[in-house]
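Residues and backbone
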Amino acid sequence: MKSYKPQEWYNLIKDLHGLIIEEINTVFPDTLPELYPKLVAMYEFFRLVRGEAFNYSRPADMGNFQKEIYKMEDELKKHLKQLENKLDVDDEKTSYNLDLMKKMFSLKYFNQD
């Protein structure tokens, strides 16, 4: 299993952050109900890479990078909050996609066949 150096891990996180920001920038009002759950999943994956998981690959100490990484997380959260505020929970498309998101995080997600 590869063990990353702090600069390598930071670059990975920075690239992931950039990909998520690019995806956020593709959201339009008519695509928001469909994309919002995916963006939440991306945000959660960012948090896992940032430091909640990958314990054997991630450097134990990110040193000076840690503060910048938390800023990236805060920025993503801010964007998602703004998008969340634009969601119409009474809209059928929104309800459908939020239900899919709930299923995605359920214990039986992979046993739905």
Observations:
- The mean pLDDT is 90.
- The radius of gyration is 16 Å.
- The first helix runs from residue 6 to 24.
